[in-house]
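#lab-general

N.A. 3:47 PM
ok so I finally got the sequence cleaned up, no stray characters, all 94 residues accounted for. can someone with queue access submit it? mine expired

B.Y. 3:52 PM
send it over

N.A. 3:53 PM
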Amino acid sequence: MPDLRGLAATPSPTPTGPPAELVTPGIAGFVAIAVVAIVIVLLAIDMLRRIRRAQYRSDVNEMLDAEEAAARGEVAPRDEEGPEDLTPGGPARG
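B.Y. 4:20 PM
back already:
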């Protein structure tokens, strides 16, 4: 039987590979990250546009409801955050 005690005392070799400075994502990695960044920016712009549109629709619906209530002679409830008066001079403060 061979003597294996000498093998246990020697350190195992470490695997060698290319230096860390030479390992880069390259052109493909740059293009992939650039595409992802552009898509995220476009999605953010679209999301903001949709949020603004929903807010405008909500404001217009509230104004139409208030006009209908005024036409029927009812007193429309006023919320604290909504637009009180959209005339150029603004609401009259007294």
